[in-house]
Amino acid sequence: MRLAESLVPWITREYGLTKREEVLLSLLEKGASNKEIAEQECISVNTAVILTLTL
Predict the structure, then answer these.
(1) What is the pTM of this model?
(2) Which residue among 1, 14, 31, 43 is least packed, with the fewest CB closer than 10 Å?
(3) Three-state DSSP class for 16?
(4) What tens-digit pLDDT sequence spans the chain (55 residues)?
(5) DSSP string, 30-45
(6) Distance in Å from the first CA to the final CA of the chain
């Protein structure tokens, strides 16, 4: 069974997401935790939580 391709590019175009939102969505799609997102994007965990909630 072949896995589906990423929907992130389509969602980004369809909803007019910013580059940062696209990166966050991509990380979420890969299963990254808020802590992992915060570390990778050099933001606080609280900021990662808020940003992911607004997606």
Answers:
(1) 0.82
(2) 1
(3) coil
(4) 445 688 999 999 999 999 999 999 999 999 999 999 999 999 999 999 999 999 8
(5) TT--HHHHHHHHT--H
(6) 29
